[in-house]
Amino acid sequence: QVQLVESGGGLVQPGGSLRLSCAASGSIFSIYGMNWYRQAPGKQRELVATLLASGGHINYLDSGEGRFTLSRDNAKNTVYLQMNSLKPEDTAVYYCNVPALDAWGQGTLVTVSS
What's the confidence (pLDDT) of residue 60? Predict the structure, then answer.
């Protein structure tokens, strides 16, 4: 069973940047697409972006367009979510998910605050 581990969250000031990582226990990202979700306090989990196995990506948040980018390092079995110009409303726990394997990471907390 594949395991996903997120990292890279933390406290950042508005306007700052963070790069989240999702490391898999196997070479899956070149085979399966993956999603980044986030869940803000008191809100439902929402889909942030998808990275296709082909390398294409889709951003689902209007607020994330131009600020969030996805990349992948197949040698490290890791996918990255680069987040720039962070806003307080980006505060949430961010999760990675591989839907074809029904795999979820434990989440990493991002807090955007001055």
Answer: 85
